[in-house]
Amino acid sequence: MVVLKEEIINGKKIEVVMGDITEEKTDAIVNAANRHLSHGGGVAGAIVRKGGEIIQIESNKIIEKRGPLKTGEAVITRAGNLPCKYVIHTVGPVWGEGDEENKLKRAIESSLQVATENLLKSISIPAVSCGIFGFPKKRGTEIIYKTVKDFLKNRETTIELVRLIGVGDEIPNLFKEAMEGK
Question: Which residues contact 97 (CB under 8 A, 6 or more apart)?
Answer without folding.
Answer: 71, 103
